[in-house]
Write the structure tokens for this entry.
Amino acid sequence: MTPLDYNKLPPCTIDFPLEISPEEIGTLSGPVNTLLKSSYVFGASLETEAIFQSLFDIAVEIAGVDACGFLRRSDDRTDHWELLVSRHVETTPAPERLPFFVAPAALANHFGKPVTLDPEKESSFHPFCDAWSCRSLIAFPLRKDRDIVGALVFGKRSTLPFTPVQVKLLWVLGMQAENHLQQNGSVKALPYYSFLDPLTHLYNRRYFDHQLEKEILRSRRNGESFSLLMLDLDGFKAYNDRFLEAAGDIALQEFAGILSGSVREVDTVARLSGDGFAIILLEGDTDGAQALSQRIIQRTQRHLLPGDKEVRTERLSVSVGVASFPADSFDRIDLVSKADRALHMAKTQGGGRALSFHDTTDPGSLKNVLSDLPVRKIYDASRSVVDMDKFLEILLFTGMQGLGAGRGSIVVKDPEGDFTLRAAIGFSRHEEYLTASGGFRVGPITTWVVDHQLPLVVSKQDESPFETQFKKNGYQTESFLSIPLTLQGNTLGALHLTNRKDHRPFTHEDLKTFAPITSEITAILSQGMEFRENVRNFSLTILTSLSDALELRFPFLSGHASRVRDLALRIGERMGLPPGDLSALGHAAELHDVGIVGIPGNVLVKKRRLSEQEVELVRKHPFLGSKMLEGVPGMDATRRAILEHHEHYDGSGYPYGLRGEDISPFARILSVAEYYDSAVSARPYRSAIPPDEVVQMIKAGANSLFDPEVTQTFLEM
């Protein structure tokens, strides 16, 4: 087939800047955070196969990639490429399709820059995309010592092509892959057995450990649970000793076939030791893992193995231990330990059965479970953790693990007296809104526990002080346990546990057994909340001082922040905002211009109209101000209000062009207050505008510049 003439193809290079701008970082916190966390995976000393499979996982998450591949140049010829690692593509294309299959990589190599192939724009790219079974493709060249040694190709099968933002995110991912190639001297294909067990052709222990760590990282990012199954063939040693060694090898190989035939393509099956195996069941809870275990047990028991004279007369059974993440554990070593414990219990009970970790936590063993809880680790961590929500999630997990609860939450009472739901585990996907850290209306259980400062143990419905039946709210049992988190007469919140995994009711004996860990949790929570509040207050003090210093430097700003704060709070009070919201609004008003510190002073004091470039420079101050509050605990609402206070109700504002209710409620209030005080105050480039005239300007801006409800409230004052 005639080689393709790439110079005759329509333009396809990506020529816009690929660096993620500061403005874009503010809207891409999720994907950017995922990329930062992925550096852990790429920083590990792992083979190319594992690195690129991890890379493809990240690509799916941040850009909706449907197909991907890493192609290596086999020699100096631009048309000689080898597919080393791929996901959801044909690994051995037909000869007539091969030139089109390697074309994206060859184009990236030819032009020395990323390329995008979209047949909707240029029909001549259809054969290239068809070879990848995709509707659009992008390809990034990968360099080693300045020479292009390979290319990453990503494809989408949906009708929507890659957006510029997705291209930038994938470019960053490609740079991480390029760093891996720089650090590892070779990009040759891996030896076949480097990550496979040579006897069973299942994955080996090394690959399993890496994959398990990767699934834990992914679960922490997206909230999806998964289960770990540890499996042992019962009586295998006796069988292997009794018959020829070849019979033992056959048994292991055929059991591996049973395992592979029982799982989905996305699950991981590995051989860990002689007769020890493991399965990573993606998006699987304990019930799903138990169902899979029973299928494997039944198929194994029915399967005949070679006996005397190679006649198939023998049977073996299998024991299974199950642990789920994050329900049973919060790290890899502990998860494996919990699954091993369940496996050991299954074998000691006669084998041929599956046990979950929570099946091993009967009342007699509860104290042993409590002794395993990572209390000291949590206590030490509390001295440095600023992200209170993550910290509380660990505390909640500790409580659930101790009493075998399948669902729990921690409600915290803030200094203003408002309640927030700061952590929740075991809630279904449609209930994820419950984990929002803003204020919410507490239920009767929390109110009762906090008001009485007493634990509430309900073993059955007629023991409950409430008439409400809680099963309709996601409770699988009528029994629940709610514990006030009280220290020295001060109730910090409440911890709620329900849906016990063994379906036994909670009892006062559970409460008594759990009392020491409850006291530890409360003490840690108190220390963490105090630490968090200290960080918050210290940060506010610094930023307020900086705002005051700006007013001294630029006299035309003198008193502006305090006047905007007073006006914004008056509007907020008339609109019925609760105390906690008023506090956040007040902080945002005081600090709304703190980002001006990053704008050149000579621009701010100019007495003539600013140029386009200077206007763009000044418009960065909301973003800069919000970045200065990044990481300050309890300031998310304030930070967002600062970021969005120059957005307009009709979408014509900046920095992101948000419209309507997409704009923070606090920012909509702040927008009116800031506009009024700025207009009635003199600026270097204009004199003050009479207040009555400004009021009419705000009235005219309702539904365009300003929220109509906020405008009406302002006009009524």
In short: Residues 598 and 624 are 7 Å apart (CA to CA). Residues 40-45, 185-193, 363-386, 428-439 have pLDDT under 50 and may be disordered.
